[in-house]
Amino acid sequence: MLSTQPASTLTSATDLGVAEEKLEKWRELGGDDLEPVLASSAFALLDAQWIISHAEAGGVLAHRQALPEEAFLSLADLVEATGECAGSLPVAALSYPWLTKDHPDPLGANLSRVARALKALLTGVRSFRRLGVFWDFGSLHQHPDPINGVMRTDEQNALFKQGLDCLGTLYSHKYTTVLRLTSAGQHGGFFSPLLASTTGTNVAEYFDRGWCYTEASWASLTKNGALSLDLGRMRNEKEYDCRSLIRECVQGGGRRPPLLPSAFAVELETKSFTNGKDDKPLVKRLYEAAFEEQFEAAARLSYADLGWGDAEAVQLAEVLASGAVPRLERLYLNGNQIGDEGYNALAAALKEGAAPSLQAQE
Question: How far is the C-alpha of 176 from the C-alpha of 135, rounded, in Å?
Fold first, then answer.
């Protein structure tokens, strides 16, 4: 959890100017986990509608300090929008590779792709009405012009660090949506010939990057499958609404089963960071904290329709056998291709009493 304060001491419906029932719904879905950083402006969420309009106008995303006020949604806006899409908060977090060290998307190509997905999420039955989007470049305070020595202020540095410490909760939160931009399209890479030939372009693939791998791992913990979407599955020629986008970007969308912190740490050693090894101790700590936070509270886990087989089931069994999910009551694995090996591993984990409440229901 981000704060040990009771939720009621963080803010009130009167303070926000929203109906009490809206705030209750927001907190019922765990929105209070995000209140400290949203209220302090440690990070700001971009308005999905603004992102769409900016992309359609041919824009390129600027760093947070250069964005206009109308680019953001307030905490009150988010609380007011809660309940529009059942079973989720109106909060999304983007996971994507920075294309250059100074600007993540200098040509605006990824902005256009993300906007297309957001437009689908705001369209159709059970879609979001409003959606706040965490996009690190626009959501966290940046160094405005490091080449010319214009850096974050001391206050902005403190807020940046606070926001960084919250990322594990944001991406792993059971009711936030994670959008994973793993490629430019179903069969494409990220890099246009123009950008790929530019000096300073980072050509590492999504899963080879430390932060992308970490964000995808956070999103693989306890979320319902529909809340972790691989936008690399989108087809360029297809029009989507909310339902069809989710269907396209979940099944076979690269969603891995959860990893024990020890297994995560081993894999992390093979990943690259822009800042070298400096980020590895940080993300290891944040991953372990998010793992414990999410599984300790989990009573229901839904990993349905993810295209998993025996290997994924065995990996999930390792998590269950560790005793990480003591409150688990329901586990959904329908719609996968798990065989005897996978189910035997799961049964063995449960036989050892790893999830006593689940075992009692069988």
Answer: 14
